[in-house]
UniProtKB/TrEMBL annotation:
Aminopeptidase N-like N-terminal domain span: 34-204
Annotated source species: Fodinicola feengrottensis
Name recorded for this polypeptide: Aminopeptidase N
Cofactors (names): Zn(2+)
Primary site of residence: cytoplasm
Domain of life: Bacteria
EC number(s) per entry: 3.4.11.2
Catalytic activity: Release of an N-terminal amino acid, Xaa-|-Yaa- from a peptide, amide or arylamide. Xaa is preferably Ala, but may be most amino acids including Pro (slow action). When a terminal hydrophobic residue is followed by a prolyl residue, the two may be released as an intact Xaa-Pro dipeptide
Peptidase M1 membrane alanine aminopeptidase domain location: 244-435
Amino acid sequence: MSPKSPRPAVPTPGADHSTDPYLPEHGNGGYQVEHYALDLDYRVGPNRLAGQASLTAVSTQPLSRLSLDLSGFRLDRVAVDGRAAKFTRTGEKLHIRPARPVPVNTRFQVDIRYAGNPAPVPGRWGDIGWDELTNGSLVASQPIGAPSWFPCNDHPSDRASYRIAVTTDSPYSVQVTGNLVSRRRRASTTTWTYERPEPTPSYLMSVQIGQYDEVSLATSPVRQRAAVPARLRKPFGRDFGRQEQIMKTLEGYFGPYPFGEYVVVVTDDALDDPIEAQGMSIFGANHVDGRRTYERLAVHELAHQWFGNSLTVADWRQIWLNEGFATYAEWLWSEATGGRSAAAHAGEWYDRLSAGPNDILVADPGVDRMFDPQLYKRGGLTLHALRQRLGDDRFFPLVRDWATMRRHSPVTTEQFTTFTEAHAGESLTDLFAAWLWTKPLPLFPAR
Ligand SMILES: [Zn+2]
């Protein structure tokens, strides 16, 4: 029942493109990265980043050349397996010719020394990636911003572990998506080292630098902490005061939280939208008002730790599997805390969507509509339709099993529909065809 999409050819060795139907210019063929070790030295005032990146990768084809994604920066040295390698730059690609070709199925290491003023990657969604704040910097990379701060194979299907050390002026707090393993202070600078063992796509890695207070949010069932500007601590305390309850509620629906801890960062500047990273969410100062106005966004971003981060889109067509679940989590939280029921939220959004236009396929929205609100709400409605069809007794175990069985794995819509039908023990072709693969709105699922 999935529409046939052309199956792209396997990239040739050194191919500077991925097989992504939406963003083929991001990601590269011929290898998979296993581990990134990044040593970064950053100065806030001049916005200057000097980095040493060591990538451990495995070739999937013989490689006489290979490509990485990197935007900006001067390169001082590129080496493959310790030998200096020739390289050229075109646009946001780094092309490398190893001194000795890498045979197929071989582990190899690429070392790159680079420096410059990091700047976000311009694109159809605006400027994305490493960006300066009034006093510090942030990284918000979804979907194409990672090459703004490190050389990478920038595609969600290439997921690796990370070790990131950031040295910067001591007054600044450095929050990196990972577990803090050391913090060493010298005369005027501090080096913060983090490790991220879970397989993580480049776009979900993030560095947050600012003058933040560290606040504990919860110690059970998951350690949660926050980095917050001192001036916002009081309203933040109220707005994010129910994180423990939100975590327990979402674990009840989706199973165990997939990472070691959860970190909330609030920047001292306003942000258009909060953004998820691996084990972390980033909010703007404008999302803190002391009245819990944006609590649903706190729920949405936490839900992404299961749907989007642990379960990662195999390619960008599958984005509704992130946003539909995160949207439905908002409605479930409302229902669980005595607010409006998920059915009431679904009904309201159904009525709003009924006014039209209904002009995207949820399961294949097209690159320009990946982040369209219509996809978010109809994605949530799709899950509500599934819940109505199956009943709570079958729907909630299914969602929990999906999140648990695909933990830390790439996912596709086809895998979800196949899994769902097998779990439910019945054909749901009509439901998925109507909600995911048809533009006009189906009838509202019976309440
Ligand atoms: Zn989202």
